[in-house]
Amino acid sequence: MTTDPTRHLRPPADCSVATGIRDAVAEIAVVGDLVVSTTGLLEAAVTHCLHERPLRVRVDLHAVRFMDCAALTTLLECRARTRAQGALLTVIHPSPAVTRLLDPATRLALGVGVGVGVGQDRTRLLECLACAALTEHVPGETTVGPDGSVLVQWWRCTRCPEGNAAG
Ligand SMILES: [Zn+2]
């Protein structure tokens, strides 16, 4: 009997991971479904980046269509590994599929927009790519779905003209 375990798995969910590193900042962009069957891609990307000894690792999740709890666990493990090497891992531009999973403590741990809330002060500390820093953002345009519900709230950087982050 053959025991090739991969033959018994369903085709992996559709996911691709791209990495780049510049000026000690590694950026990992995930596109597709970040789920239990694809978290290995993220882990491999983080391992690859850590070989380059970055100071920051930014995981861009704006194109993640679906994320499950296993992926969240992996993300937090990757953050711990990054921290053990003296670097900081943060999530940038989380898609709604990602933010849905994040409780306030996890948001804080992953550096995702702090100070959120209806009726509170409407600014958020978000990562601005243009500024390459956490900056104050104010609500900007919204992307609205066919039924009129807000799909994406964009946040505008207050320190530069081009910073636009999905909150
Ligand atoms: Zn900016």
UniProtKB/TrEMBL annotation:
- What Pfam families does this protein's entry cite? STAS_2
Q: Which PROSITE patterns does UniProt cross-reference here?
A: STAS
SUPFAM superfamilies referenced in this protein's UniProt entry, alphabetically: SpoIIaa-like
Spell out the InterPro entries in the cross-references: MlaB-like_STAS, STAS_dom, STAS_dom_sf
What name is this protein filed under?
Answer: Uncharacterized protein
What is the species of this protein?
Nocardioides simplex (Arthrobacter simplex)
